[in-house]
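Let us work through a complete example step by step.
Step 1: write down the sequence.
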Amino acid sequence: MHIPDGFLDPKIWVVADLFGIGYLAQAVRKTRKVLENRQIPTLAVMAAFIFAAQMINFPVAGGTSGHLLGGALATILLGPWNAGIIMTTVLIIQCLFFYDGGVTALGANVLNMAVIAPWVAYAVYQASTRLFKGQGGKVGGIFLASWLSVMFAALACSVEIALSGYIPLKVVLPAMTGWHALIGIGEGVITAVVVSVVSQAREMKAGEEKV
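Step 2: predict the structure and record it as tokens.
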């Protein structure tokens, strides 16, 4: 999912870079209006958790592995604008210090994983919570939102590479979406578990504060 240098045409990555800069600026403006000082450490903790979780791979099939993307998790717990800031921070650190994703492709990676994935997750989760009630519906909505966030990010990545003319869409699209359909299952399970644990912790804390 992390596009390296050399896979994107300059026209693609320049536009993506400019979009990423603009989106990050807008996200900071949006969150600064509502973000309290005590919530800033929460964003840092979430970024650190996602960064660490992405280092842990789980087996998928055929000797391949995948890891948590994290966009849906950050979105469901903190909202899509905060998720954009968190994911962008993680991607910048991975790119500059761990060479995971290219410098020229950073804007495209931000677009895929810090913009598309969170907003797809947000839209699906909001729709599912309105349509399905109860704990089962909530968990199912979290899973579906997480899975689709991965799939749409993989789709966008495929289109960007294909538009650059290096790999035909008919080749890159099945490869990317096929493997990420499996990776998305792991994403959904992990996100559902973490959100459930955090929700229970919040309820316990709220109960203690009332007492």
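Step 3: interpret the result. The two ends are 47 Å apart (CA to CA).
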